[in-house]
Amino acid sequence: MHLHSNKAIAIILVALLIFDHGFLYANAGFNYKDALTKSLMFLEAQRSGKLPKNNRISWRGDSALDDGQIGHVDLVGGYYDAGDNVKYGLPMAFTITTLAWAALHFSKELKSTGEWQNILSAIRWGTDYFLKCSIRKNQLYVQVGDPVADHQCWIRPENMKTPRTLYKISKSMPGTEIAAETAAAMAASAMVFRTIDHPYSRRLLNKAKLLFDFAKNYKGTYDGECPFYCSFSGYNDELLWAASWLYIATRRVAYKKFISYEAMSSSVAEFSWDLKFSGAQVLLSNTNLTAQGGLLEFKSQADNFVCQILPDTPYRTIRITPGGMVHLRNGANTQYVTGTAFLFIIYGDILSKSHQTVTCGHQQIKPARLVQFAKQQMDYLLGNNPKGRSYMVGFGKDSPTQAHHRGASVPVLADGTDVNCGMSFVRWCNKDVPNVHQLTGAIVGGPDADDDFEDKRTSSSYTEPCTYINSLAVGPLARLAVLGSS
């Protein structure tokens, strides 16, 4: 899975100045290793459950230790997705799948930067939780916490009193997207742990197989996470994504047949918790597999993903801000920035190893161009942008101080403190002051289509961080940290 040529890629990155489609980009000289370390620290700040002794986030404590009790099941653990205190299954599973892919593809970089154990811990914090959620066959707990009640109370998870309602999918109430994404997370993670903890790896892979069968045999969209996480793209992308990871993990003919003859695929210009076609296409681009009996070639569709994003191709459909940032939509837009960087580097590595290029009509794009564009996107987030500011908390110049995040903005309170939810927003959310705790490493939602940014806690589309923004940043930052030191 570790496919790249550092020598070829480094040639394009060592240049001091790069003139790209009207934008002048200087070698920003960022400390990518520090950004990588902090990006993983943010994921630790999002942990739910009983924290380990080596917890690095001093202002975080144990939380939600009774999760699952009302259903007579242990659902302690997992991650809070963003600035609230709900555990949503779909984005959490995507976070773990992409962390596992980063661990597989960028293993050398993560080891050389000293972050290997931290990414393993981050992945296992999720997979341990998913094992609890999937304890019964054809049933999966997909959410903990009443989202409406939760969003009416601005309180740190250690002191929350809002209902920890349980939500699950089953044969009679299917949720193909979440079951398939969780299967993908378990299959990818099984590969990570295969040589580290083989019995654990087998448990994950066996669970992945069962979850995929559940997703495939009982099809239906689960709307329980709506309006917070609505699956607008449907479930065909998750089925292809899960089958792809299971095929890579097992090489079983059954998954190959599903990919080739049953799976649907489509050319898209997005990679996110809701839409994974491009991720699966990149993953499968060097397997010689095709979809729908040979009609759809994954290499061609992966090329189309690149062609729709790069500003110097005739097929570009994605907006690039005046300052050079990929912009799909307001509200956690930085997930598309880190997602683009993540896939571009991995695909560039695959193409370099197989001596191929991206085809955009009559135009041929060399792999190094993909890596250079990925670097530009990450540099934008770290401070090489029109505002000259960082969008990662605690990193670089003028970084965000008001991340839209309950735990960071509410002071540590004594156990049992009774908080008035109605007054909680007045006391802690709506005040125009820096958070009392630094949410180190969090990449916030970021600027709008005109490169404008408002560092206010109440402007959630600008300042709310999400686990999947950071999980997608880990791989690119690891690569840049190594290239920057070479």
Automatic annotation (TrEMBL):
Enzyme Commission code: 3.2.1.4
The entry's keywords: Carbohydrate metabolism, Cellulose degradation, Glycosidase, Hydrolase, Polysaccharide degradation
Residues of the active site: H404
Group of enzyme by EC: hydrolase
GO biological process: cellulose catabolic process
Domain Glycoside hydrolase family: residue ranges: 32-475
Listed GO MF terms: cellulase activity
Record field: catalytic activity: Endohydrolysis of (1->4)-beta-D-glucosidic linkages in cellulose, lichenin and cereal beta-D-glucans
Family (UniProt): Belongs to the glycosyl hydrolase 9 (cellulase E) family.
Record protein name field: Endoglucanase
Source species: Asparagus officinalis
